[in-house]
Amino acid sequence: MRVADVVAALDRRYPPAWAQQWDRVGLVVGDPALPVRRVLCVVDCVPETLAEALDVGADLIVAHHPLLLRGVSSVAATTYKGRIVHDLIKRDVALYVAHTNADVANPGVSDALAARLGLCDLRPLSPAPPDDPAAGQGRGIGRVGRLPEPLTLAELTARAARALPATAWGVRAAGDPQRVIETVAVSGGAGDSFLAAATAAGADAYLTADLRHHPASEHVAAGGPALLDAAHWATERPWLDELAEWLRDTLALETLVSDLDTDPWTLHAASGTPAVTGAPTVKEPRP
Question: Are residues 133 and 193 in the same domain?
Fold first, then answer.
């Protein structure tokens, strides 16, 4: 199996044409003629996950987030991303990215997130429009599904915290803790641009990442679905398991998944009532 063979298979499953115009997906670094025996799947290609790839002897890294999303004028080894590019090339490790084309795929990033919550009867939160290359067959951003049994918002938040990979960020929620939740919308990664879509979909709650103060506050005040805000990395990490299984089954490649938490937030201090708890307690980040 060569790099070119794996790239061709990934391009068929996640066609680059499905990606947003601003996105940068596909083969980033690597000689198409070189062999691939072992693959490491990661959310982010950063020095830590690159070191992990080298430690396990991976010939190819498949990442969700682009390494070179915006134009650069230099990849000198004195720059952060330049050093990564140099190390990839020197070690003959290829890098492939599937980002928004994997977000809209079916199955894709949000299907894996929905599965962690046990959602069923899934449909796209924001279906790909008819004139989009990804249109049809249940593709689009996010998913909306039904819980096996109704939960309160407090119970759903606790379930999400248990089901998602552990991070210092954890899961926070906005809304009445006793609100009954039956239909849940999810979107892996930054999802506050789909708040209106979650309302239109009839969701009782919406789980995503990177929610901002004012959009979230106004959304809840307007009576929209309750909100659950998880760490960006944690909402996309579940997809790596599905991706790795597909690579093993389809291409018979040895495929590993990185559990290195690449979320930038490494500490969480829980606010307490001074008269009861004293100083805020610092929670150690979990691996």
Answer: yes
Q: Is 87 annotated as a binding residue?
A: no
Structure tokens at 132: 């989009």
Q: What is the pLDDT of residues 160-183, one digit of tens each?
A: 999 999 999 999 999 999 999 999
The one-letter amino acid at 146: R
Helix (H, G, I), strand (E, B) or coil at 178: coil
Residue 48 annotated as lining a ligand binding site = no
CB 114 within 8 A of CB 145: yes
CA distance 234 to 91: 29
Indicate the number of domains in the chain: 2
Beta carbons of 127 and 109 less than 8 angstroms apart:
no
- Per-residue pLDDT, averaged over 108-122, amounts to 98
Radius of gyration of the chain (CA): 20
What residue type is assigned to position 119 of the chain? L
| pTM, rounded to two decimals | 0.92
Helix (H, G, I), strand (E, B) or coil at 111: helix
Q: Which of 171, 75, 183 is nearest to 121 (CA)?
A: 183
86 is in an annotated binding site: no
Kindly state whether residues 214 and 244 are assigned to the same domain: no
* CATH code for the domain of 126: 3.40.1390.30
Query: Are 109 and 102 within 8 A, CB to CB?
Result: yes
pLDDT of residue 281: 38
Q: What is the DSSP string of 203-236?
A: -SEEEEE---HHHHHHHHHTT--EEEEE-HHHHH
Q: Which residue has the higher pLDDT, 72 or 179?
A: 179
Is 254 a known ligand-binding residue?
A: no
Q: Is 219 annotated as a binding residue?
A: no
Q: Order of strands, edge to edge, in the sheet holding 254-257?
A: 26-29, 94-97, 60-63, 38-42, 254-257
The pLDDT of 66-88, averaged and rounded, is 94
